Amino acid sequence: PDRLIGYVEDAIKGALEKGAEKVAGTLTASKTTITLATSGQVYKTQKRTGLELSVRAFASEVSSGHSVSIARDQRGFQPGETGRTAAEMATAAKNPEQGQPGKCMALLGPLVFADFVNQVGILSSAFLVDAGQSFLMDKIGVEVASEKFTLVDDPTVGDVFGTRGFDDEGVPTRKNVIVDKGVLKTYLHNSTTAKKFGAETTGNAGLIEPLPWNLVVEPGEKSFEDLVGEVDEGIYVTNDWYLRYQNYRNGDFSTIPRDGMFLIEKGEIAASIRELRISDNMLRILQNIIGLSKSRSWIKWWEVDVPTFVPCALVEDLNFTKSLM
Q: How confident is the model at residue 318 (pLDDT cuts 50, 70, 90)?
């Protein structure tokens, strides 16, 4: 308990040092034993630990920043840096202007890009495809994204938050390439969906349906500053809440940018903006990815269910509409 309190204090101190007026957040520490026994004579057990920190820093009533840190244990866990990052975003977002709706180049930070990537991973479940509730239906072998986008579900990565040794049917987990350079390669299967699709299980059985364990996006070759420098006129989005579909089958959705959102002009961040909504199509966004950063971040919080390792993403012609809030 003393160590956990220390983590919280480090996060708060880091945020206040960087100009935050107030700080909110959550720290979840977990120690879990997963035990599986089946009528098929499977008996397996796995122990897991985890730390999840989510920090929101406020520099005014209308300017905030959000950052997270997740780790399997204290190695790689960065509460102080998480607080500082959230506060730097909040102070940069002071005095926001009204954003202008329309299509433009957009730079998506790890929090918002991880939300989009989660949609691809979750909706690659063969159960949801079979139910007609996925924009990936009938897309195996089809180019669903830019060739710059490769997505892997890999629960076998050592010493990370989402490591998992076996699925809920007792099948050993494995690395599965979901999208390879833009082309959809597989759905995620349990034994039932695999039989129906004429495939084999991918080791992704959940209690009810197949699900991803640990999503990893392959990095790009450019720095964050390089990506900003490529934008003549566009918007940098750092976070989003409430991603909701108008049509799961087509991939039409909307989501609300939260915390810092910034206007980019002539390769530089020029102003803080607010009151815009992203209203677009998931497949169109994936196909419009033109750049990814070489640096990546692990993301998990209440908007991003599956632990996800993502870069920043530069997307052409992202559609912004006027927020009703």
A: very high
